[in-house]
Amino acid sequence: MSVTLHPSDALAGLPPKKTLSAPHHSTAATRRRIAPRAPLFGQQADAAAPATGRRARATLARLRKVNEQLLQATLLAQRGQRQAELALNRQTQLMAVVAHELRNPLMTLCTTATLLPRVAADKIARLLEIIERQTGRMSRVIGDLLDVSRVNAGKLRLEFGDVDIADVVEDSLVTCRHAMARHTQTLRLELPSPPGSIRGDAVRLTQILSNLLGNASKYTPAGGEIALVVQRMPDAMVFTVEDNGIGISPRALLEVFDPFVQEQHAVKFNGVGLGLGLAVVRELAEAHGGSVEASSAGLGQGSRFVLRIPIRDGRRWTEAS
Question: How many Å apart are CA 104 and CA 138, to the nearest integer?
Answer without folding.
Answer: 9
